[in-house]
Amino acid sequence: xxxxxxxxxxxxxxxxxxxxxxxxxxxxxxxxxxxxxxxxxxxxxxxxxxxxxxxxxxxxxxxxxxxxxxxxxxxxxxxxxxxxxxxxxxxxxxxxxxxxxxxxxxxxxxxxxxxxxxxxxxxxxxxxxxxxxxxxxxxxxxxxxxxxxxxxxxxxxxxxxxxxxxxxxxxxxxxxxxxxxxxxxxxxxxxxxxxxxxxxxxxxxxxxxxxxxxxxxxxxxxxxxxxxxxxxxxxxxxxxxxxxxxxxxxxxxxxxxxxxxxxxxxxxxxxxxxxxxxxxxxxxxxxxxxxxxxxxxxxxxxxxxxxxxxxxxxxxxxxxxxxxxxxxxxxxxxxxxxxxxxxxxxxxxxxxxxxxxxxxxxxxxxxxxxxxxxxxxxxxxxxxxxxxxxxxxxxxxxxxxxxxxxxxxxxxxxxxxxxxxxxxxxxxxxxxxxxxxxxxxxxxxxxxxxxxxxxxxxxxxxxxxxxxxxxxxxxxxxxxxxxxxxxxxxxxxxxxxxxxxxxxxxxxxxxxx
Length: 513
Ligand code: XMP
What we know:
binds xanthosine-5'-monophosphate; globular; alpha/beta; 24% strand; 14 helices; 513 residues; nine-stranded mixed beta sheet
């Protein structure tokens, strides 16, 4: 693909993905590479600029991450952020020490004063708040560098050697707390590196369609479609590229949200592909009958899913390529530590063992979620599919506490639909990252009309989060909650009490099971 590239050199900081996303938002393609990547490999990528990320270490310690010093004579512009800034200074002869007193150790929002003659801060206000998080201090900056920003406590918040195109900032321009931070990144890309902004999803679509065609030729392609954003966009891209050579298998396990199966099917009607919708509700419900332990539910659904998929794949016969909807955050994160298994996630992406095929195609492997959504729009997928919130593979099975029956699933579907409708009509559908209803196994006494009821308690859950690893409960306005509550108890027979979940993650998880 012919587009300019920026390398985000990863020193282990917590905002590294965010830096990469910001660069892409500025219309410039970038890839995150570990700091250990050999210089020849970086050179082979022919980047127009490099960004050194932050990191948790102190640059003067021998054990801290360091890059090959030849990177500084290569002639490619560098922006160092936080640890990256200190690394730049240290490597070029500056001195970095632990901050002696608390005032030089800066954390959080800090008023900062910029020299707007510096290309990094060109066109920006001279003062603004920046987000700091550093305990080290640049006691002496390297020769050739000017001080281009300061705070009340620190004279060298930013440094620049304009001639060589080297810039360093102690703060984090990539986070929203830094005013005009994105503009600074944009300045680095466009004013310093000479970016032209050639990274668009329109181009990506054209190039991806062409490369997929060249690769697949007359081969057969198989894709497990879940109805989620990633698998839907991957399916649409493949459909656009190879049409009838593609078979999408959509296993409807009967635990989808209201109308979801039909919506997904409708969205793909315009392409000439083989769309196999397997109605497996009965099959899944009978396997799940009487099971209430969350991990068992997950295992049963995961295994049954693979079995159904396998049977369908056999009917198709020979398959050359299997498509997976892996996206870039999965690629960056894979191989990073072994986290404890809190829940065994079931994902329809991971099916390679059960089908014979030549190769896996991962057409979204280099895209962030917002880019995947944009690509979906380029492919004319409907907005409800493109903006769909995450939905777990095991579906409503893990939102029905206790044993699962069709009646309970229907009840939950109706209640969840009301909740979603009201959130949308309050205009909150994009500010709350995930929201859904949970059918508890608690029943309680109520009164309706003149009669006693003994019905289920429904829990509503809404969270705000950026990565779904941690989440805060969403402050949904009382009026909206009130409307949802009134509507559900009136419209959904079998529910007489509504509660709202006000726990964050951790200690709770987003889903209840
Ligand atoms: P938890 O409940 O672990 O959820 O805080 C974090 C995010 O993951 C989603 N989730 C799943 N996604 N297969 C999936 O594809 C699964 O088995 C699964 N379980 C949870 C959950 O909806 C939330 O967005």
